[in-house]
Design a protein that fits this description.
The structure holds 2 protein chains of 2 kinds.
Chain A: E1 8-10, E2 17-20, H1 25-45, E3 49-53, E4 56-60, H2 62-71, H3 75-103, H4 112-122, H5 128-142, E5 147-150, H6 152-170, H7 173-182
Antiparallel strand pairs in A: 1-2, 3-4, 3-5
Chain B: E1 13-15, E2 22-24, H1 44-64, E3 68-72, E4 75-79, H2 81-90, H3 94-122, H4 130-143, H5 149-160, E5 167-171, H6 173-191, H7 195-205
Antiparallel strand pairs in B: 1-2, 3-4, 3-5
Helix pairs in contact in B: 1-3, 1-6, 2-3, 3-4, 3-6
The chains are: A mainly alpha, B mainly alpha.
């Protein structure tokens, strides 16, 4: 039975959504993941947050947040932070673009099936929205201790969060795999 | 009451964990994406219980050990997650205190308790409505990652507060334990198969004359 666009099929027994037919899924995922990749470049090149206290300046960036933990003797958490805020989002956006871009013209990129299999596994470890909440909590914590300035990187990061959410929400697993099945390598 | 619905497991059909295609489990591998096929997530209960025990063991150190240490002009102050929350409450930053309380203290605890309850229900030790239990499962899967917020706060403060002798923040041993609790409960939620709750109900309703085919690798 076909599920019309913009509707969903629910499990008759427990009521959980089994499948949602999302309109223009591939175009959306391609567009948002491409935008997310561009934003990631901006986030990692421009200052994110600058703090000034007693004439000393320190800067926050995603790479620094992970690297300082590794330097301060917590390599496991440091690499975890890197995984959740840099590596997993990059893999997700890159993977989505790699799979969905060529599918728009009916082709499958080499190894696209492998990449698509890994996308689902990577998804729960992309925690950029949680990191943004962490930034807000930290701001409250630092409060009046120092002067804080938001950089371009911060706004790009907020936009990145929205783009990633939109891209992930656009994935229609059924359509994606149906198309991969018939696409030419 | 919903009418009796046919079940894929009774017909030897498996839903691919990765791509969602339904195929006969005897194929062993999904014809569409190549992943291994299982009627239910393999060793679901054992894995979930093992991960929960590990998470439970880390829960106390995660909350009792300091997650970070603040050195300010020679004064060294270690703070646990609870103290961090109390500090916000004292400064009347109530919304933030509540966010930390929910994300860092309530969600991990609720997750562990809920998954233990789900495992008990799936093995028939307690009897609850699978529909409600299924909702609880969805909830734990959705909320788990937000507990990581405190780890990010530590990483941000460590990166920002590097003012030499004037003020520095260093990560504490509690942070590793806390991150462990979050990651382990996330894996525990992923390895649990909510269909086991319904299988239990099915086997209670009518002893099946034809037992389902055994789960192959």
């Amino acid at each position: 039975m076909a599920v019309p666009e913009r509707t969903a099929a629910r499990c008759q027994r427990c009521g959980v959504v089994l499948y949602q037919n999302r309109p223009a899924s591939l175009v959306r995922v391609t567009a948002f993941s491409l935008t997310a990749l561009v934003l990631m470049g901006i986030v990692n090149t421009f200052p994110f947050l600058t703090m000034e206290s007693n004439g000393i300046r320190t800067e926050l960036s995603l790479v620094r947040a992970a690297r300082e933990l590794i330097r301060e003797g917590s390599p496991v958490i440091g690499w975890g932070v890197a995984l959740f805020t840099i590596i997993a989002p990059l893999a997700m956006a890159g993977g989505m673009l790699y799979v969905c871009g060529p599918l728009l013209v009916g082709r499958a990129a080499p190894g696209a099936r492998h990449v698509a299999r890994w996308l689902g596994r990577t998804e729960p470890w992309n925690m950029i929205e949680v990191f943004l909440l962490g930034v807000l909590v930290s701001l409250m914590k630092l409060g009046k201790m120092a002067d804080l300035y938001f950089g371009v990187g911060f706004w790009a990061f907020a936009a990145l969060m929205l783009c990633m959410a939109a891209a992930v929400a656009g994935i229609d697993r059924n359509e994606l795999w149906d198309r991969l099945e018939v696409a030419e390598e | 009451m919903t009418p009796h619905l046919p079940r894929a497991i009774d017909q030897g059909l498996a839903n691919c964990h990765v791509c969602g295609k339904v195929s006969p489990v005897v194929l062993r591998h999904c014809p569409r994406c190549g992943s291994a096929l299982h009627l239910r997530k393999p060793a679901s209960m054992q894995r979930t219980v093992a991960l929960l025990i590990a998470a439970g063991a880390l829960y106390l150190p995660a909350n009792l050990l300091p997650v970070m240490t603040l050195s300010e002009l020679g004064d060294v102050m270690a703070s646990t997650i609870l103290q961090g929350m109390a500090e916000f409450w004292r400064r009347q930053a109530y919304p933030i205190a509540i966010v930390i309380f929910v994300a860092s203290i309530m969600i991990p605890l609720i997750k562990i308790v809920a998954l233990v309850w789900l495992c008990a229900a799936a093995s028939g030790k307690v009897h609850s409505s699978p529909r409600i239990l299924g909702r609880i499962y969805g909830f734990t899967e959705l909320l788990g990652r937000w507990s990581m917020v405190d780890i990010f706060v530590v990483s941000i403060l460590v990166a920002l507060c590097q003012f030499g002798a004037y003020m520095t923040v260093t990560p504490g041993p509690g942070a590793l334990a806390f991150a462990g609790v979050v990651v382990l409960t996330m894996f525990a939620a992923m390895s649990f198969d909510p269909r086991l709750l319904w299988d239990r109900l099915e086997s209670l309703k009518a002893p099946d004359p034809t037992p389902p085919p055994p789960d192959r690798e």
